[in-house]
User: Fold these one by one.
Assistant:
Number 1:
Amino acid sequence: MKTLELCLSTDDNYAKYAATVICSALKNKNPDEEIIFHILYSNLADKNIKKLDKMGNIIFHKIDNSIFEPYFNNGVCKNVTIPTLYRLKLPSLLPDTKKILYLDCDVLILNSLSDFYFCELLESQYAACVPDLAQGVHLERMNFNINKNNFYFNAGVCLLDLEKMRRDDIEQKMFDYLYNNWQKLSYSDQDVMNAVLLGHVKKMSRNYNFITPNFYFVNNCKPTIVHFAGVKPWKIGFYNNFRELFWEYYMCTPFSDDKTQISTMKTVLFMHKKICQILWFLKMYPLFFLQNGRLLDFKRIIKNIEFNY
Ligand SMILES: [Mn+2]
């Protein structure tokens, strides 16, 4: 039996999305894998704790937000929300955990995570992550030297070697960096992690943090981790089949009886399709195909449209 430890941080609004991540991870794991979920929160209603708790092997960690006060009292972190800082404190928040896979609540797990979780890190590497889609912009903004070991990762999915981070006191380095640089950071904790870990991160394939463009037919692809970094699947936006898949997993969670969420689902799915049909009908192809500043594979999309409509 292999044990994988995953971590999510949530509040009452995101509990149902955390549940969707848990559900997708459990449905797609291999039988010889056991997953422990660490949930970080400062406030969570009892009913939400109960619902999450019955899903599997869940360990709840109530975080006392006052530990972050020194950073707020001095005006540091004024554009940062506290839960986002939990990620920087993982080495001390989870003192008994050697290695953790931290996940945002806007992801889906579609395959076994073992290849990622048990990937080999070099002695000098503290983490394994996937380059951000807008990496070039971030590298320039942060003034990072560009060489083969340096890249700017998206922190929505990161595998952290907590043991090594504790050994080298990386947590303190991250909070020092935050304290000294908060004015120039646009992506708060993600910038902090990138700056402090620069050159010490294993670069993983996009398969492990597949950031979905807002509109994209992706019928032939099944990444291990999908990340809805842009428009969330529970918000009206363009259609893509991962957004539809999100609701399938959502419906398998203990939150599937939430009537408001069900009506949101119906509206969102209906609108997804309608927006696409209307754009296609109006021959607004540029809008239809333009995604994150890039034109996608035209032929493949045409094929998929014919297939879909
Ligand atoms: Mn995210």
Number 2:
Amino acid sequence: MIAMTGSTQRNVGLAIAGGAAIVVLACIAVLAADMIAARRQASLDDQRLEDLVELVKTDAAAAAELDAEHQRQTDKSVQRELRKTRVTWTLILAAVLFLASAKWLVSLRAQRPPTLNTSVALRAPPPTRPRKAGGDVRSHSAGGPRVSELGEQEIDLSFVDAIVAKEGCDGEAAVPILQAIQAHYGYLPDEALQRVCELTEIEPSQIAGVSAFYARFRRSPVGEHVVKVCHGTACHVTGARQITEEIRRHLRIAPEEDTDPERLFTVDRVACLGCCSLAPVMMIDEETVGRLTPGSACAALDVVRPEQPA
Ligand code: FES
């Protein structure tokens, strides 16, 4: 198979999508024109048949002409239906081709180099992890970052070495490698991403593009507890938005963040959790809490939260 560059693939995709779109429009135009013409012709044909029927009443010799007219109109109608079927199938196939090429173009966009800022962010040395005063911060993942005596998270990069050895070093391995890193650490640590760039042909720009495109990739660690607030229909109408806002305020979560400063709680909005009769509902880790009010939601979090020093 001939390897194509990204821009060639985009041009091929655009050509296919453009051609398919033209065929779709042409088919729609043919069908519309046929329909209008058929309507006009139908009234003329009806009139012609009525005239012949009247004529046959006074002149029996006109019966043959009436039969011939019947036959002509039937043949025309059959031809019209045949053409309509062919054009409809062409329209369907062109529409499918258009959608497939459009989807392909969208997937190619995911491989576009990200903005300069994102690339620079990846090349920059990793930021110092916030230290936690007292206590540690655990990760949900068994293989997640450890916490040093100073409270800083230490990333064990041997997992990255192993996954690169398993998945390979070319650009196509980017997604499986990132998925494995995300599953192992619970997010994509900067140190791990830099290690990937050192070991493979994968460019920082490609990593930035992939991790930005897939919403499931996190660039910061999750909190010790994951809180899923249901925003399905039943929960939405019974106050899910107010509950989320109150929880975020209670945990002092910054506007663009989803995790509190102590990294104890990560708050997610999720779709229906499947227990609508208890709406509004949230889950704290694996435990479901229902019939919430903003106050009771915060109280449920306080039960989980370790005692604050006086
Ligand atoms: S809508 Fe929230 S549990 Fe179903």
Number 3:
Amino acid sequence: MSLESNTPNGYAIECKDLTRKFGTLTAVDSLNLRIRKGELFGFLGPNGAGKTTTIKMLTTLLSPTSGDAKVAGYDIRDEAPLVRARIGVVPQEFAMFDELSAMENLWYIGELYGMKKEMLKRRSEELLKTVGLLAQKNVRAGSFSGGMKQRLSIAAGILHTPEILYMDEPTTGLDPQSRIAIRELTQTLNRSGITVVYTTHDMEEADKLCQRIVIMDRGEIKAEGSPSELKEKYGGGHRIEIELKSHDERLLAELKELVSATSVSVDDGIIQMTVPTVGGGMLHQISGLLSKRKIDVRELRSKEPSLEEVFINLTSKEVRD
Ligand SMILES: Nc1ncnc2c1ncn2[C@@H]1O[C@H](COP(=O)(O)OP(=O)(O)O)[C@@H](O)[C@H]1O
Ligand SMILES: [Mg+2]
């Protein structure tokens, strides 16, 4: 059922000044963004950042107030049916019929897409197997756990073999095992060639899963890049932590100079230094200096910044609901 591709420039999604207002509130503010075909791309942001509103515009469920976007090469305003045929959605809220079984839900959706009966039967079985629900194919969706519902939603989202799959906070509210299962499934789908647009407020998850991320806050993109690029650029530097039996001011000054630290502090007896990057031989040099001074080292470690630190550095710290 694969449709002809319309993306000769290699972009699955291109947004130009994409904006959505609700009254006086600007939920999405002039988004400029390109997502390459085949990417596993993340929108990371707290509640209210504008992730769902962005997804709704890019799935043609909500019209933009201003700006444009192309999805799979087609205009979201003027060519909405062509866009819809090429995308699948796993919505934030479960949108299946509780009274229907897993299989019946898929059949219902397949019929809406106009899929042929034979094809639909084959594809439903195959997908229920992929998402680990084949044994429960005749069970009512309403009796499923959160994780099972989410897996069924994923099967429904890819039933018509879309080029692009949007997943809106698919792991929010799930237990750790289910979260892992959803992430693995997402990666499997992405490896099979589907472009995945994934939203989450979980920074560790975005770090582990996504090849590229935008950090959104209050409708705006604060930063864009791979998780390691973002940590390098906005993480505030790497940390080196050294736990010694004893130290004095002179040693601290020497250590600071040795690694060109931008800051040095001592917290609970542990020396903490911030350095722009941890070069190859840096830890080695430190141990060299300490052994020359005959100082016992209890612990010497380097820590890269987390996406959480990137996020805090880029956004305001107030709590969102
Ligand atoms: N239909 C709507 N009417 C009014 N305000 C809305 C509507 N949908 C979303 N918003 C507001 O837009 C902002 C962004 O919401 P949303 O896109 O759902 O954020 P996220 O998915 O990142 O949590 C929030 O302040 C939200 O309250
Ligand atoms: Mg949302």
Number 4:
Amino acid sequence: MSNKPELLSVESVRVQFPDGTVGLSSASFSAQQGEIIAIIGRSGAGKSTLLRCLNGFQEITSGEIYVSGESVHSMGNTELRRLRRQIGFIWQEYNIIDRLPALTNVLTARLAHNNPWQSAVGFFGSEHRKIALHNMQRLNLMHRATLRADRMSGGEKQRLSIARALTQEPDIILADEPVASLDPELAWQVLSDLSRVTREDGLLTILTLHQVHLAVEFADRILGIAEGRIVFDGPPSALDDEAQTKIYGGRLPQLHTSEENYLKAMA
Ligand SMILES: Nc1ncnc2c1ncn2[C@@H]1O[C@H](COP(=O)(O)OP(=O)(O)O)[C@@H](O)[C@H]1O
Ligand SMILES: [Mg+2]
């Protein structure tokens, strides 16, 4: 066994909001490079709260989170900036800058790697452009490079935000409901792309999803959350009726294992 720390370790994390609501309670799990983990659960279960703790967006009330062996809880501003460079984030609503061309949006991921004076004048050297263009190519967006982001379709915008996250050259990608704004066919396509590129790069990918079918299809591992607690942690094949009852409090329709069945079911 190597002495290298786990990429991510979450230990007994509790989040209580100022109004007293408990968002998470004793959440523990650890994760390795290369895993694709889907967090599932009902609305309000604590999925987004868990994800936001991982890059320090959400303060924790107790417990510990370690990324590459370093405690997120005790990081100062400089360390948090470094952490957020190591973690790419993908939002449901894309969070891209509408009036800027696609390529410029992707290049913003290089800001943290740039000299401050270069960023101040909007200058990105050729090595940054090379990385950005390479990732746009991987997401089949080269023909869109000069297009203003607001002219792009929803599926293209989400592929753009995946290209941007990769251009940060992160170790971890977090995605909060990345396909919730897309219709089922596009959702499938975007998750195929996301899982393909993060597997190619050996990144740890953690995403929240509210369709269990998508989690089963694209994740290696599923974390089920109910009322702020992790009530299931296992491979998709272990997500039986009992597990689903624990997570959702009731039986769900049969799982669909192929895209065709999934699309039929959603039609
Ligand atoms: N800033 C906040 N203040 C108070 N309660 C919050 C806040 N953010 C989330 N919550 C509550 O915490 C619980 C978990 O929320 P969330 O993580 O957003 O759920 P999910 O992403 O699974 O839908 C919910 O009950 C939600 O209302
Ligand atoms: Mg959420």
